[in-house]
Structure formats: C-alpha cells, structure tokens
C-alpha cells in the first residue's frame, strides 16, 4: 500500500510539474504577444471569469468524486451531478448574459471590455463539463488520467495562441484580450476530449441519455449538495475577500499614501504571491487525490489505510511548503530577478516566506474535512480567516500602511489553517481514526 501511494504520488507530482511549466509558457506567450493595454483588459476581466467559473461548477466536481468513491455504483451520482449542472448552467448563463453591460459600465468602469466579458460565455458549459469528467475520474480512482488532462489543456492553449497570433499581428487591444480569454475555453474543450477518450463511453451508455431525467430521487441530489454548497461557499468567500480588500485598503488615506498602497498591493499580488504560492499546484493535486481515495478506504472500513494515506500526503505537502519557504527566504532577490528581471517586493517575500510554510497544509486539511462530511466547518473556517484578513486591512492600513498587507494575509491564512487543524482533530476523535 505504501509503495503504491509513493509511486502514484511521484507520477502525479511529475505530471503537475509539467502542467505548471506549460502554464508558465502560456503566461510568457501572453506577456509577449499582448500589448500593455490588452493585458490590462485581460487582467481586469479575469476576476470576473474566476467568479463565474466558481458559480458554474458550484463545487459539484469535488462532491461527485467524494460520493462516487463512497459507492460501488457511479451511475446515480453522475446522473444527479449532470442534471444539477445543466440547471445551474442555464441560470448562470442567463444571469451573466443579462449583467454583462452593467458589469462593464458600472463595476469595471470600462465599456470597451464588454466583448471580452462575452468571451466568457462559452467557457461556462465547457468548464462545467471538464469539471464533471475530472470529478468522475477521481471518484473511480483514475487519478493519473484526471491530472494528465491539465497537460492537454495547457498545450492546446499554447497551440491556439501561437496559431492565432501567427495568422495576424495587427489585432487591436480588445481583440487580443478576447483571444486570450477564448484560449481558456479552448483549453477546457481539449481537456474534456482527453478525459472522454480515457473514459471510453460505450454505445449502451449513450442510449441512456434520453432517460436522464427518469427515476430521480431527492437523496441522490442531497448527497452532492451537502458537499458542493459548502465548497462553493468557501470559494465565494475567498472571491469576495479578494474583491473587497483593495476597496477597504485606500479608505481614509491621502493621495500620496494611496499611491504607496496601490504600488505595494501590485507588488504583493503581481510579484510576491505568484512565487510564494507556486508549489500550491502540487499540494492541490495531492489533495484532489486525497478526497476520493480517503473516502473510498474510509467508507469500506479500512481506517488504517485511510489514515496512512492522509499521513503520507500531509507529510509531502508540508515538506514542499518548508522547502519553498527556505528558498523564498534565502533567495528572495534572486527569485524576483529570475522571473521578473527586478527585485521589487523582495522584503515582502522574506516576510511571508516562513508563515506560508503552513499554507501548503490548507488544501489537504480542507479536503479531509470534506471527506469526513465536515464541509460546513471548512466553509466557516474560511469565513473566519477571510474576516480576520479584511479587518486587519480595514483597521491597520492607516497606522502601518504597507506592512498591513502581509500582516493581514498571514493572519487570515494562519487562522484558517489553525481552525482546519482543530476541527480535523475533533473529527478524527469522533470517527475513531
């Protein structure tokens, strides 16, 4: 069992590293091909894209992987997930289509980005489909296939961007931003095709599609919603915190102080956080394996194997976090120079380095709470952590200015991680693990 876990973990990390490298290539292509104005339009609409993806998936993929892992028959949970996703997608698509002009004019204050926002519409069904397929593959313990889909997603984006920008070089800024946004949809389409090929749907399965809405039972939906709704709530809380932070940050400051804070906020989010959270793609990959695999063993009474699986993954995640913190603390200026050709934010990177060693524990701890049917507690932990972060920004910025940003970030992260640990310890005691 232990050798199998280590071997699978090694392959998953290897695939994740390759996918992350391809993701960086996408960023390099966008940075080189997009004009400064086009990049501004793209980054301005990206938070809206992330928010819409959260609403479109509604936590159903992770919930599906957990429910399938608990049962021997994957058909009923998959059927319920498809129906919930269809209904949710129709609502989200109609609402977003109606709100696009208001978002562009009132919220983003850029009427010209309407066409970029419209480019998000085809992403809604495709990201839902890819999420369902990934959740299904994880639920039936096909972790390598689910993780490998990320490689095809990034590769297809690279090819799409390279071909489009090679055909023409005289795109205006809005067209460039729209192409960059559409590339996300292309990636989800190719990822879905790869996963469908791995599932190898049989003809008799396709014949059952017309009977999708027959023999429905409320408890089939309840099992999914009990996990998906709290997970969606946690992600929405994070999105709302991200949205409110810069607004609260500049309240009551002078013009000069405002400029300092905006510059520091840009350094934090543009330079520091991408580096210090870089290993998160590995810890998130391991955590996505932990949720269905732990549930599978635990539901069948194999508590010893389930606990061993948790210990191996949490140990790997912590080792990754410690290594990243050591590198960021001792080589902060070298890392910034390597990636960005400047050393802006080096002091902030050092401040955050060691506290963020615990950030690597958040994904596995959160997924363990979901696996033990404590999704509500995971959502509340995220809420309290986000509340502490917002309060630190709102109350401390006018007194300590720039230092309030890393302090608020660390405080919120540590509160969430500590509460996850406490609730998981309580859950372990109740479950006799």
TrEMBL record:
Q: Where in the cell is it found?
A: Cell membrane
Annotated InterPro entries: Poly_Biosynth_Transport, Polysacc_synth
Its keywords, alphabetically, are: Cell membrane, Membrane, Transmembrane, Transmembrane helix
Domain of life of the organism encoding this protein: Bacteria
**Mode of membrane association:** Multi-pass membrane protein
The UniProt entry's GO CC annotations, sorted and at most eight, read: plasma membrane
The regions listed as transmembrane in this protein's record are 9-30, 50-69, 81-104, 116-139, 179-199, 236-256, 268-291, 312-332, 382-400, 406-426
Q: Does the keyword DNA repair apply?
A: no
Pfam families in the cross-refs? Polysacc_synt
Q: Which PANTHER family match?
A: PST FAMILY PREDICTED COLANIC ACID TRANSPORTER (PTHR30250), STAGE V SPORULATION PROTEIN B (PTHR30250:SF24)
Instruction: Tell me what this protein is called.
Output: Oligosaccharide flippase family protein
Native species: Copranaerobaculum intestinale
